[in-house]
Structure formats: C-alpha cells, structure tokens
Amino acid sequence: xxxxxxxxxxxxxxxxxxxxxxxxxxxxxxxxxxxxxxxxxxxxxxxxxxxxxxxxxxxxxxxxxxxxxxxxxxxxxxxxxxxxxxxxxxxxxxxxxxxxxxxxxxxxxxxxxxxxxxxxxxxxxxxxxxxxxxxxxxxxxxxxxxxxxxxxxxxxxxxxxxxxxxxxxxxxxxxxxxxxxxxxxx
Length: 186
Known about the structure:
The chain has helices at about 5-50, 105-115; strands at about 90-95, 120-125, 130-135, 150-155, 170-175. It is an alpha/beta fold. The chain folds into three domains: about 5-50; about 55-85, no CATH class; about 85-180, Alpha-Beta Plaits (2-Layer Sandwich), CATH 3.30.70. It has a five-stranded mixed beta sheet with strand order 2-1-5-3-4, covered by helices on one side. The termini are far apart.
C-alpha cells in the first residue's frame, strides 16, 4: 500500500532536512575557524620564540643579574626570596668621561632600548679609564652593571663643577670611561 503524504507532512520533512543541513554547515564552518585560529596562534608563538636572543636573558654563568643573588638582598627577606633591584624608574644621567664625541648619547640610547626611561646624556669634565656607576643610595643602579661589567660601583653624588649636567634629583650617574668606549672601538 502506498501512503500519501499530506502537504504538512512533506513540509515538516523538508524543514527538518533543511535544519540538519544548516547545522552541519555551521559545525564545519566553526571547525575551520577554530583550526585557523589555532594555526595562527601556533605560528605566532613559534615566530616569537625564534626571535628571542637567549644571551639577553641571563649572564654566561647562568646568574640572572636583575634578580641578583641572596647576598644582594638588601631587604633581608626570609626564605631565599630575592629583591628585584632595577633602575627603570630612576633618573639616570649618562656622562661622557672620554674624548669620543657622542659616546654618552650612544649609551643613553642603548639603555633606553633596554627599557630605561628617565635618561639624559651630558659631559664629565675629567677623563676616566674605567666606567663608574655612581648611585645616590646603596644598591640602586646595580642592575646597570650588567651593561658595564668592568665598571666601578660607588655610592655618592657629583657636584656641578664636575659635569655640565644638572645634578639635582639624579639617582644614578653612569660615567663612561675608555673601557666602554664602543664608538672608537668600531
């Protein structure tokens, strides 16, 4: 026997088939979008990993200078916690203690590229062989020693008779000596 379908039965049957087809298309489209996002994220992560220069992350001996060592922990914190001693927010004046023109500006720009922001470059009236990091407070500016590994570190300040820089409010003076004269060594 042949059953005749009513108009409403045919409509309902077609409606269900259409809904199933639309749902299948939506599922496939969402899958494609998710796969593309995953691939883009993976490519971005891989590109970021390949651009990192590992030598800027730690020193050769594996000691992270920015974190320091437990001996550098001026806060006396218990449990091996190490105080992070950075100078990114300090006022730093880079002084040229050599005869090479533009050296203080070069080092100011170099430090700016590492994230230091409150920088100025001026001249020091005497000539130095060894670079000197002169900090207003003990422990401040020790993170700068990673860029000047042979520098002397001292606590103190300068007078206006020693430099053409304004000495008021300066937290750290970096006086570049011939040991870090990278412009004449090129």
